[in-house]
Amino acid sequence: MPLLADAPTAPTRGTLDAATAAARNGDVHAWVEAVAALTQPRAVVWCDGSDVERRALVAQMVRTGTLLPLDPDLRPGSYLARSDPADVARVESRTFICSPDQRDAGPTNNWREPGAMRDELDGVFTGAMRGRTMYVVPFSMGPVGGPLSQLGVQVTDSPYVVVSMGVMTRVGSDVLDLVEAGAPFVPAVHSVGMPLRDEAGDEIDDVPWPCSSTKYIAHFPESREIWSFGSGYGGNALLGKKCFALRIASVMGRDEGWLAEHMLLVRLTSPQGRRYHVAAAFPSACGKTNLAMLRPTLPGWTVETIGDDIAWLRPGPDGELRAINPEAGFFGVAPGTGEATNPAAVEMLARDTIFTNVALTPEGDVWWEGLTETPPAHLTDWRGRPWVPGSEEPAAHPNSRFTVAAERCPSIAAGWDDPEGVVLDAIVFGGRRATNVPLVAQAESWEHGVFMGATISSERTAAAEGVVGELRRDPFAMLPFCGYDMADHWAHWLRVGASLDRARRPLVFQVNWFRRDDEGRFLWPGFGENSRVLAWIVDQVDRARGLRTDVGAVASPVGLLPAPGALETRGLDLDDATLARLFAVDAGSWQLETDLTEEFFATFGDRVPQALRDRLARLREALGTPG
Ligand code: PEP
Ligand code: NA
Ligand code: MN
After folding, report:
1. Burial profile 78-113: b = 16 or more Cβ within 10 angstroms, e = fewer
2. Which end of the chain is flanked by fewer CB atoms within 10 Å, N or C?
3. What would be the CATH architecture of the domain defined by 330-408?
């Protein structure tokens, strides 16, 4: 049961610096007291992550209108939340990396001088929780006490955030016990930024989705602190996820020799019963959740899910690279999730799910674009307005989400939460490219693999074959998530690779499901058929280990491509010309792309590792002089 402490009685208001000082001392109770003195809630509740606690918070949110219960026969244990229409996504423009030296944030992050940011935050957090309850949520990223795991404590004035954190992380008194015993924790403070009393003490009416037009998602890499203000939305408010498990953890990894990555994690089992583990980085909205839950079309193969968004990678005792999914649930995009694209997810969402900003059916079930081919005749859209097919706006917000426990996933791998993690066999980098990038290519070396990760990009337009469209760069799919200089991240990858046993080091690949023909049609069917590409990838792992002696790959300027016949295409409606286009390397178009890569590298100045500059030079040489 939650412990209800007395409202803080501190006569003088607290300061943000006092909270930081307590956190630095590692004293969780002093820290919570200091945050309460700053934010002035009416009560403090220490959460234990129990089912009793969850039920009480859900009941409270149903009363206040934050959660709408769905029909228990159609969608048992499930709820719909409708956010403020202005609080529907991560706000990168208000996301800050506050390293003492601006150069350590790098050119791709918003930087603020820590002292200046502390002053601003001190202003907005003062009295921010007046009239609200402050919840203290002790959580673990990764199994509690595991060798790859990390602890955090989030303070929040949002019950929606408490319940969501209970799904997405491991919340419990066992975590608090460790923290009280002196284990290091990441202090994370969150407020929706809408107090229920003004400075004079007069009451302000609550709303179902409180938030503020002022937003801060601030990270202090040196003190490992997170301060988030003004939003209740996932990536801004569930601070274990992007803020901790990527931005802060990437800095921890830099300092401690490991990697925090925006990667899914899967186990493949071959028809021979051999098991492989693959991590894959894709920018947001490239189908990571679909790939993580893929149902293979190739007979005899299985794909099991370990994670769909974040992986922590750490060199193991024998020179292998181990990986865990630090999360305990999925916070996925609903639109586009349907029987055809992700049947496992559809099954997973049948119960015990919190939906945010999807549409509501008259029967009390949910719907979103892509769930079924034909929309229901009548819906209530994500803003609560009547909707009929043909309405101008989509029924569900394009970034509407589901929040569900990993255990609910029908394809979850046995031992997915093993504290020791899994040994990685392959790492995959992907983008959404209409041109140039082949369906799959293997890096010639670890350094080449880091080059592939550093040059991940997507094209907005369905550019004609051979003509590179406008490239949006998203190195390592970490552009919004790296807590330090991106080029330093590349150097760190080179260092981690060098620390691994060469024979056990994962092989690195680049994939592109999105290449198009001149008419803008996709060349590759994707979804379950992507299992064919995964099968070739792990066949290459077998060949590298001497478990197969047939020729699997041929050299090309951009990496090793499947040898004729090595990629299983039987049963696909794919003619030879289409197959050739999927792997075509057009020297002129690639030369143009190397120019763009040079410009991109130049934005990082002298922090780009020499090995990557060398790789670019080699690519140019291999392409030959155009014309
Ligand atoms: C998020 O916005 O919280 C999130 C998970 O982001 P994305 O899906 O873009 O990775
Ligand atoms: Na988002
Ligand atoms: Mn993501």
Report:
1. bbbbbbbeebbbbbeebbbbbbeeeebbbebbebbe
2. C
3. Beta Complex (2.170)
